[in-house]
């Protein structure tokens, strides 16, 4: 039988940010986001079109004012030109206000949808993704990359569409005014096209590098802030500053590279624009090659030529914004293309009620990487309501067994069953409602104690929540906090001790009332008083339900109904505490070592 493992996704991603996708592959999903906003998008396009037409009408008015008014001495023509110029100004003001608002509204709608889609996608991804991925990089996708995209969707998109409309309209009108002068002015297009193509290639690479360097900065900052106690405890501030200086220097160089590229391209476009106007003045005003045009036509021609180069200059100036935005989009859509390793069945089987809580592991082999199995040929049957304790050395596979029972991962070979049903065939909702895990370090969210306890069962009443805490015997402990259940919890519960956090975590799981409860033993690194409260809460929480406790201290195993000894990815012993001690095997040596070195006196 071929063992599958879970390493495929690592091969799928580059630079820890998802598979790299081509710029052209970004367009379709972006249009998909815009499709529901077609009406407002249409309003934006129409208003931008009117804006472009009104702007393109101004040189015609100037031409008529010069040729019919100034040259012919017709005062009425000058007055009419002034009136039309004023009317066009009013139209431009109105439609520009409309287009600016509508484009920004559409852009914000797209960003809101994309943020929610990315956040929801994060929550659907498997634990294997978060094992390999750095959270700082994921935050960078939601912040720095979204900000870069915001610039494009708001001001960038408006400038691009306006510039394109003006560019196309100006070229058409130039041919209508004088096709000869237009053809002559086209000699500047080849160097313009070549310069733009070169700029595009180098700037795309440069802005991809900028997105990666920004993520590196955020990763280092997040790790440094999270580990600030360790940094200061070991007086490593100077070392971290040096490390950040290197990361910051790479970020500086990446950004400077984009500036160097733009500083060569943008002035060249400016120079080409001036050269184009010089050509028009030379050939038009000098009547070279028999080209005979009026003064007003030459003036209009210069204005329209500006309408060609001004949009090109604008496009070149926002090109870095566009490149930055598309680079961000590639990384965001690359993340969205990552498929979770652990997927819900398309047609989940209903879980038989009431759930008995029987857990079976049938010939399970699993590894976080295909070539490094953590568990091999594990066969375990856990009866309904049984209190099971997993013991063994660090790295033996105890926590991995618990993660498979939670279906954080799927076994490469074999199956894990709940009441005889393969976990892969159940819905996530049924599974998570039936099997709950309390990790070794209680994780709390920002909010109050009450909100954190209710997190596991948000539909519970206040009375049910308090009664659950009373049943666990932790109600006096919580009420002794500064504001009781309303005590505020900061990021990751940093204002609370390890014991206080664990009390809340166990209360949260107990309120959810799952048939199966898994505990990564939570009494390590606690003072004796708090440890006694937590141990009492654990005994109450595991009573009357299937419980799997990962024991780091053998005091937990001493009173267990059943003990599984895990070593080198295999179940090497199975029995009660007395049976295993008397057997004289691996558990006996573990217990003897604990008695001699680790057991607390008294």
What is shown here, in short?
The protein folds into 3 domains: 324 residues, ABC transporter transmembrane region fold; 87 residues, P-loop containing nucleotide triphosphate hydrolases (Rossmann fold, 3-Layer(aba) Sandwich); 110 residues, P-loop containing nucleotide triphosphate hydrolases (Rossmann fold, 3-Layer(aba) Sandwich). It is built from 22 helices and 12 strands. It is 64% helix and 10% strand.
What do these coordinates show?
- There is one protein chain.
- Strand 9, helix 19 and strand 10 form a beta-alpha-beta unit.
- This protein folds into 3 domains: 13-336, ABC transporter type 1, transmembrane domain (ABC transporter transmembrane region fold, Up-down Bundle), CATH 1.20.1560.10; 390-426 and 553-602, P-loop containing nucleotide triphosphate hydrolases (Rossmann fold); 442-551, P-loop containing nucleotide triphosphate hydrolases (Rossmann fold).
- The model is unreliable at 1-16 (pLDDT under 50).
- The protein contains 22 helices and 12 strands.
- The protein starts with 7 loop residues before the first helix and ends with a helix.
- It is of the alpha/beta class.
